Amino acid sequence: MNIIKMAAIVLIIAGVLGLVYSSFSYTKETHGTTVGPVELSIKDNQIVNVPVWAGVGAIAIGGMLLLFGSKRV
Q1: Are 4 and 19 contacting, i.e. CB atoms less than 8 angstroms apart?
Q2: Does residue 36 come out as left (phi exceeding 0), alpha (psi in the -120 to 50 range) or beta?
Q3: Where are the transmembrane segments (predicted)?
Q4: In which region does residue 23 sit, left (phi positive, over 0), alpha (psi from -120 to 50) or beta (all else)?
Q5: Higher model confidence: residue 47 or residue 34?
Q6: What integer is the mean pLDDT of 42-48?
Q7: Per-residue pLDDT, 72
Q8: Which pLDDT score, from 0 to 100, does residue 30 have?
Q9: Per-residue confidence (pLDDT) for residue 1, from 0 to 100
Q10: DSSP string across the chain
Q11: Residue 59 and residue 44: Cα distance in Å, rounded?
Q12: Disulfide: which of 12, 32, 59, 69 matches 65 by Cβ 3.0-4.6 Å?
């Protein structure tokens, strides 16, 4: 399996996951300040929304790479 087919499959899987799980969240921890032995930190929950057009576009580009990527001119 060559690199183009692997990239196409990864794009298709990423596009499907983007459509199924339209958003994901992660926790970002920042260190605010340190005062003596006390350290203050802030945990911020971030939510990232994946647009529908990005998922569909990834599937379309992956499909095109899978169909036309291995043909030589």
Answers
A1: no
A2: left
A3: 46-68
A4: beta
A5: 47
A6: 90
A7: 60
A8: 81
A9: 67
A10: --HHHHHHHHHHHHHHHHHHT-EEEEEEEEEEEEETTEEEEEEEEEEEEPPHHHHHHHHHHHHHHHHHSS---
A11: 32
A12: 69
Domain locations in the chain as residue ranges: 3-68
Q: What are phi and psi of 72, to 5 degrees?
A: -95, 145
- Across the range 56-69, mean pLDDT stands at 92
CB 73 within 8 A of CB 9: no
Indicate whether 4 pLDDT > 70: yes
Q: Output the six-digit token pair for 37.
A: 């032995």
**Integer Cα distance of 46 and 52 in angstroms:** 19
Contact present, 9 and 64 (Cβ < 8 Å): no
